[in-house]
Amino acid sequence: MFISLNWLKDFVKIPDSLAPEDLAKKFSLHTVEVESIVRQSEKFSKVIVGKILEIKKHPQADRLQLVKVDVGSEKLDIVCGAHNIKAGDLVPVALVGAVLPNGMEIKEAEIRGEKSSGMLCAEDELGLGRDHSGIFLLDGAKVGKNLGEHLGQSDIIFDVDNKSITNRPDLWGHFGMAREVAAFLGTKLKAVDYDLKKYTKPAKKVEIKKLKVEIKEEKLCPRYMAIAVNQIEVKDSPEWIKNRLIAVGMRPINNIVDLTNYVMLELGQPLHAFDASLVKEICVRQAKEKEEIETLDGEKRILAKDMLVIADGEKPLAVAGVMGGVNSEISAETNSIIIEAANFEPTQVRKTAHRLGLRTESSMRFEKSLDPNLCEKAMARILALAKEVCPKSEVASYLVDEKSFKAKENRLEIDLVWLEKIIGEKIEKRKIFNILSDLGFGVKELPEKLEVTIPTWRAMKDVSHQEDVAEEIVRIYGYDNLKAIMPAVTMDAPKNNKEIDLERRIKNILAQEAKLVEVYNYSFVSQDQLKKLKLENKNYIKLVNPIVSGQDLLRQELVPNILENIKLNQARYNEIGLFEIGNVFSDLPGEIKKDNKSEEKLPFQEKRLGVVIAGGNNEDCFRQLKGVLEYLLKSFNLEAEFEVKAEALPWAKADEAAELVVEAGGKYNLGFLAILSKSVASSFGIKKAVAIAEINLRELIELIRRSPEKKYQRTPKYPSAVRDLAFVVEDKILYNKIKEEIEKFSSLIKEVELFDVYQGEELGKDKKSLAFHLVYQSLEKTLTAEEVNEEQERLVKFLEKKFSAQIRNF
Question: Where are the alpha helices (DSSP H) in 546-617?
């Protein structure tokens, strides 16, 4: 939105000593964001007044002429196609390098063999109107003078960011902006005559025209004002009106249309003028299905049934709040008009403008929720200006004012103690009173309080709570005037959630040290996925409104989604390692959520850790997965044990599944690891070997919290002694059991490491050989060979008795 400095000065006194840049800064600090400042004279940089000295016919083109022009400093040869010029005329000349308001850049050119060093400009090319019939002729101009200076266009324009005023319908006109300037500069707003009765009384000798107005959609049109004016002479607007419109980027059309635009830009209330001879009656209704209207931009538009139109009983005359139609357009023959000042429902206007692809200056304002009371001021203003522009004009009807809205006036009591607390600084009571009064609020002093009446132009959308009033006070007072003070509230660091911290440590170990990639999946699975995994879905919780078609069940395992991850990534990587931490759900009794009225049974949910390794062969994947889990548990001072899984997994390779067990003051089964069967892998489209583990994360975290933390200790002073021990035991005896007994046997045994497992005919049926490295060490002295051998012999006897172990001597 463009704001004219000269226009603002019509309503508020702005000191000449205040530079435009400083005013723009104050705007940005107090009210709206100013994106840039445009000096109007710069628009016509390198466009100067020239005098035509000579005109010749172009030797190579019948429609072109060769014009010699005096621009003061030099004489230029210019090729021109217009024929409304003659020697002695004063014309605007765009020199080489000039950029016209329409974006055209002037370059030196050769046209049909003749050099052209500039361009003579028409009115529309300069953004001064729509006339392109010939060159814009100037009267009383000085040769060589800048065109902007000659036209008196020396205004300063502020380009305001529309987003910063989207909640301020009162700022979509110069008067509203002037009110803000008066408030933050501490000056008074100039009085403006908006006495509607003064201007709406029909002339005595005029035949009163009866206007018929019917509002069929009161919710969509809460107010509609109309009045007829006769003795209109349609012509160009006075220069002062044209200059104002041009300054803010609007092209003058004729005096009547220009007046409606002028008042809209001044007050923010869109207006429309109909040719009275083309309007029988006015009916505000919704459009008929596929009803057609040709709008003022020359486009024929098909209307939808829910769009609001202004009609004359049969055909639509205008799209309400958006644009008028050509069938009631003001023309040179118009001598009687009907002026409309209406208020339309903002959402309706926005939707209509969007669907028609026709966002106009009018629609932009209506969609911001205009105050219906603004219609009165706008009607009074345009009637006053119409009398000034067309002195012979006369009001020819009584004012029609159809309204269904109720004046929205809200009163708030502002506690001054509360205000000081929320602002953080005490502002003088008189200062607060003046700020609110300057902004148009009604203020009444009460003991330790203020009663504030919110004006209707702010109550529509913007100010409704006491916090809004506090914001009004402090923004005009100036945020930069508030002292920077640290808050008096003591702030404590948030308490650590140990469960979240441990979960983060687990993620870091898997991602950084185990080199796995974390994945996030939705908590939903499909019946097709369960069928591929050979799982029954009867106990799964079904969603009433799934976000994706088919993903209608809450998952009970992480496996289905992780397998989809493998399928999607297998073509890009030879080996894949992924992990996921997520919830699974079941129909078991879960948490009961209570409120004052009802109880809601929530499904049971459990957080799990899923790990998958894919690539290579089954044994490699399983061994690597087993190593990852061992490393993870060892990082938290826990020892992993793996036992044959008693209950088969329907999707796993037969007899290729194990349970992950941890001994920590009891035996805890944390989950399983298994190899995916080839048939299931094929059904998912997976071509790699896959090993999967799924662990109860809550139980794992609980074990970690209970386990002793690793403590660093000094390196022992005394050397260690290493012995190897190989013996034969029954195949069914687990390695972990033997390892535990060896570690507990003597305090001198510090490390036990299995380095060989052997099975063969020499050992006999159902036998296996285990070979261990044993490290003996004392913290008090250096062990002798005899002491180590003696301890080793005691250990051998113990193992023979405990496990029927036989020392292997071959």
Answer: 559-569
Using alpha carbons only, give the angle 701, 702, 705 rounded to the nearest 5 degrees: 85
Sorted by where each begins, the domain ranges of the chain are 2-41+156-185, 45-150, 196-401, 410-479, 498-706, 721-807
* Dihedral angle over CA of 783, 788, 794, 797, nearest 10: 160
pLDDT at 599: 63
**Portion of the chain with pLDDT greater than 70, in percent:** 98
Determine the 3-state secondary structure of 773 from DSSP: strand
Q: DSSP code of 706?
A: H
Q: Indicate the residue type of 687.
A: K
What architecture is domain 2-41+156-185?
Answer: 2-Layer Sandwich (3.30)
Give the pLDDT score at 209. 85
- pLDDT tens for 325-368 read 999 999 999 999 999 999 999 999 999 999 999 999 999 999 99
Provide the strand spans (E) within 664-766.
667-676, 690-696, 721-730, 749-758
Architecture of the domain delimited by 45-150 = Beta Barrel (2.40)
Q: How confident is the model at residue 536 (pLDDT cuts 50, 70, 90)?
A: confident
Domain 498-706 has CATH 3.30.200.20: no
Task: State mean pLDDT over 717-723.
Answer: 93
For residue 354, what is the enclosing H or E element? helix 346-356
Tell me the one-letter amino acid at 532: K
Residue 340, Cβ neighbours under 10 Å: how many? 26
* CATH, domain range 196-401: 3.50.40.10
In the chain, the amino acid numbered 331 is: S
3-class SS letters over 209-225: CCCCEEECCCCCCCEEE
Region 779-796: what's the mean pLDDT? 93
58: part of which helix (H) or strand (E)? none
740-770 burial, b at 16+ Cβ within 10 Å, e below that, comes to: eebeebeebbeebeeeeeeeeeebeeebbbb
List C-alpha distances in Å: 659 to 545, 627, 637, 668.
37, 14, 19, 10
State the CATH architecture for 410-479: 2-Layer Sandwich (3.30)
> Do the domains at 2-41+156-185 and 410-479 have one common CATH topology?
yes
Token digits of residue 489: 């509230």
DSSP 404-424: ------EEEEEEHHHHHHHHT
CATH H-level superfamily of 721-807: Ferrodoxin-fold anticodon-binding domain (3.30.70.380)
pLDDT in tens, 635-661: 998 988 888 887 889 999 888 899 999
Structure tokens at 800: 């023979």
Q: Which residues contact 758 (CB under 8 A, 6 or more apart)?
A: 768, 769, 771
543-567 in b/e burial notation, b at 16+ Cβ within 10 A? eeeeeeeebbbbbbbbbbbbbbbbb
In this structure, which amino acid lies at residue 253? I
Per-residue pLDDT at 660: 93
Structural contact between residues 251 and 127, judged by C-beta atoms closer than 8 angstroms? yes
End-to-end CA distance of the chain: 97
Strand partners, 517: 578
Closest CA to 617 of 645, 575, 578, 667: 575
When comparing pLDDT for 44 and 143, which is higher? 143
Of 527, 586, 581, 520, the residue nearest 556 (C-alpha): 586
Q: How is residue 254 written in tokens?
A: 């004729």
DSSP tag of 766: T
Residue 544: CA count within 13 A, CB half-sphere: 0
- Cβ-contact 27, 158 below 8 angstroms: yes
Instruction: pLDDT band for 597, please (50, 70, 90 cuts).
Output: low
